[in-house]
Amino acid sequence: MEGTGSSPFFENNALELARRLEPCTDAEARALKAEAQKLVEEFRAWARNRPTGEDRVARINELFELYRRVSEFLASRLPPSNRPGP
C-alpha cells in the first residue's frame, strides 16, 4: 500500500509540540511530550502505509486535542517572557 504525502505536515506539527515542551521537566510535561512523540511515529508510518480513513481522522483529532492541551499547559506554566507568540 502506498503512503500519504500529508504525513510530513502532521509529523512536523507533532515534533513542534514536543519541542515546545522541552523547557518543562515535570511529569505532566513529560506525559504530553510522550504523546507528541507517539504521534510523530504514527505520522512517519503514514509515509510508508496510507492509514484508513477512520484512523487518519482519529490521529488528526488526537493531534488537535494535544495541541490544545499543550497550549493550555504552557500558558499556565511558563513565565510571560518564555511564552510562544501567536
Fold and architecture overview:
- The chain is mainly α and 86 residues long.
- It has one domain.
- It contains three helices and no strands.
- Helix 1 runs antiparallel to helix 2, helix 1 runs parallel beside helix 3 and helix 2 runs antiparallel to helix 3.
- It is elongated.
- It starts with 6 loop residues before the first helix and ends in a 9-residue tail after the last helix.
Q: What secondary-structure arrangement, pairings included, does this model have?
A:
Blueprint: H1 7-20, H2 27-46, H3 53-77
Helix pairs in contact: 1-2, 1-3, 2-3
What's a concise summary of this model?
The protein has 86 residues and is mainly α. It contains 3 helices and no strands.
Note poorly predicted spans.
none
Percent strand equals: under 5%
N-to-C order of helices and strands: HHH
Oligomer: single chain
Anisotropy-based shape: elongated
**How many beta strands in the DSSP annotation?**
0
Helical fraction:
55-70%
Largest sheet: none
Total tally of structural domains: 1
